[in-house]
Amino acid sequence: MVCDKQQADMEVDVIISGCGPVGALTCNLLGSLGVRTLVLEQDLAPHGQPRAFSCDDEALRIYQATGLGPELQKDMRENRFAEYVGETGKRFAEVHTGTADFGFGYSPLWFFHQPLVEGVLRDGMARFPHVKLQVGAGVEALEQDGTGVTVRYRLSQTGEVRTVRGRYLLACDGARSGVRKALGIKMSGKAYGEPWLAVSGRVEGDAPELCRFVCDPNRPAFVATGAVGQFRWEFMLMPGETREEMERPETIKKLLAPYIDPERVHVERAQVYTFHCLNAARWRDGNVFLLGDAAHTMPPFMGQGLVSGMRDASNLAWKIQRVVRGLAPASLLDTYEEERRPHVEAVQKLCVRVGHLFLARNSWVAGARDMVMRALQRIPRVRRFIQDFEFKQPPMHERGYYLGGGHTSESPEGTFFIQPKVRLPTGQEVLLDDAIGNDFAVLCRANAPAAQVAAARGLAEALGGRLLAVQSTGVDGGDVPAVEDITGKLGDWFSRHDSDVVVLRPDRFVFGAVKAERLPELRDALGV
Ligand SMILES: Cc1cc2nc3c(=O)[nH]c(=O)nc-3n(C[C@H](O)[C@H](O)[C@H](O)COP(=O)(O)OP(=O)(O)OC[C@H]3O[C@@H](n4cnc5c(N)ncnc54)[C@H](O)[C@@H]3O)c2cc1C
After folding, report:
1. Which of 30, 260, 288, 460 is the most buried (most CB within 10 A)?
2. Which residue's alpha carbon is nearest to atom 4 within ligand 1?
């Protein structure tokens, strides 16, 4: 179907197809960077269904970048402990998520209620006059040329057909992405196969706080206390069981009974899902990019489906802003898939591996698994690896837009920078990102010679970002904006990486960290 670019009803920098959580987040990130954005959502109202249930420290840091962090966090529950139990109900592994600390400013496991999160994200979009959400607008066709994309959509209430022209189109339209299909991009990977019944609801009266993976071959299940009084129970369907029978209220009561008195439960939603582990053959076609479930899907065992889409948004939004503003060449956008795909594939592999552990096929295998897991954890290093959640895939890029091309075992480039608390000259203590803003940031050791601080300042100005001097004690309102490193973690970081200056990308990944005399090299690599 042809879309006439001459007759577009509207022109923007970015069109987003789909206002699920990934589309809404991307729109907030673009909005806060001043990018003119139109979001087209086929449904008239948010779907209001709790699907995603947990997120991690990286997700919270991304929410923080939208300026909506505190509002979103107030309705979340920090989960401090997760356990894996076998067929007999005896625990064979535990993860201390309350004390595990990857240094990014938050603990690594949070539960949320998806309708509330989506509500806050949608309200957040209204902060930006250059952003518009059009609901009841289903994307029907697109056409690309060398300078942009023309999209045709239909308003469901009137049947009216409109066109919009944008420099870029971001497909955030979910696992069945119409944009992806229109571009002929195939999904490949594994249809995971096992259907699960997900039950969400509330419990009357007191209920214990828990997060339990029930690795019982007779009925694998996940049971957890969620946010804002919500509970989640997930049960794997066994051979021969049907969707219809599993979604019946009497079946649900029977399934809940081992965990809670079903009479105290108000079920809000119970639906069977089949999870897949798939990846789009490519995440880009010209000026169209795929994000979130449109690009990749994964089993839920690590709660990483939505979080992966959030990482996509955080990676791509600032790159698009810089290209749209003429601050970077369009080739910067090639690094989106280059950086994100290997990470997604690693997370998918991990989810499948955890799934195998979770889903032992028979009592014999399950019993052996429980025994081996207990025995292995007598080795302190293995116990720490499990309890401290070290098996989680760390956020890092081996290739991409970095000094030297990406992360190696010797270099911090391509890693997610730490986010300790710092003290501002006003005396206020804040998380680091709140002191450095949403653009590029240059941090330097306060004791660096004046000429090198001046060079770092020049670099920050050329990038359009902020320079911050990191002082180990005390902080004044001097010539160079400074923060006090109250935890000592920033100083340790500089020492560990033998550097005086670090440049952070807007998504908080380390572009480069160097001794002060190598600043010109850093500047060259940044092309400013
Ligand atoms: C039971 C369950 C439990 C899960 N648990 C977790 C978890 O704990 N943690 C986690 O991180 N993830 C979890 N996930 C995965 C998570 O829900 C998804 O990864 C996430 O919702 C994907 O978001 P999205 O915005 O990419 O896509 P979607 O949420 O599918 O949103 C796509 C949007 O695009 C719109 N759209 C589609 N086509 C068009 C069109 N042609 N025009 C305009 N609009 C269109 C749709 O109406 C929709 O609003 C779970 C999923 C399920 C089903």
Report:
1. 30
2. 52
